[in-house]
Amino acid sequence: MLKNTRFISVPLDLGANTIGSKNGPEALLKHFQQIDFYKQRNLNQLFTLISVAERNNFSEKLKFKEEITDTCKQLREVVRKALHEKELPISIGGDHSLAIGSIFGAQAYCYENGLTLGVIWLDAHADINTPESSETGNIHGMPLATLLGMGHSSLVDLCKPAPFLEGKQVYLAGVRDVDEKEQVILDESHVYYAPMARIKEINPEVIAQEIETNILKKYDCIHLSIDLDVMDPSLAPSVSTPVKKGMTLEEVKAILLPLKKSGKLLSLDFVEYNPLNEKDGKGLTTSTELLSYLL
Ligand SMILES: [Mn+2]
After folding, report:
1. Residue 122: beta bridge partners?
2. How far is the CA of 46 from the centre of ligand 1 (A)?
3. 179: CA distance to ligand 1 center in Å?
4. Domain residues for 258?
5. pTM
């Protein structure tokens, strides 16, 4: 059966510390076209392009808050409507600040239908800084905090009328670069998390089991947010903020196996692909492998 899969391009890099990820969606989708990705997966592909405002409202504390709020507001509605149409929305970034829009969209859909939402978040960073704790003011380091209701009201309020997520609804895997103040917020948030060092130490199947017990069995629907920088830089150099000692494809597949089997995947983010840092097409190959595994 053909699955209606909506690829939502979000050419946004205003939340990042560097330019380039705004060209990620175009490069990825062009590659998918070239390798006949959609036909091979038996997908009925639909496309939406989100418009991102020009860089205008710079402030040190919270860089491009207005532009990012506007982008996330549009994305929230596109994801929400796609879900009502029984499509699988895949939000392609772009930097990770877009997850504020996509996950609030998924949360709105669940709220309107009496369903509960769990979130699996794969990332080298915890993305749980607040405007107060952030050393850079880059919003792509803050989406998880925003989803939990911590952050500037213009972003946090995009959740309304649905409630914020609770920390226990989220499982974060692969983290290996967390700021000092951010670590305190993470520990107090009740978010389940598996640092990369622990994943290397124990079997990734143990992490998969924890995800199954604490997220998959507890919630009706799952949003998966993949930051490509969770992968080892040898597999995905093409990100804005690479961090050494990341995941292998075998590890990420083992961790996501219960989700794949569960049939509960509601919506998906694939973010931070930055073509400016690409080497020998490695990032494209890894991105294709990851999405192929899930679709
Ligand atoms: Mn991230």
Report:
1. 173, 226
2. 25
3. 13
4. 3-294
5. 0.97
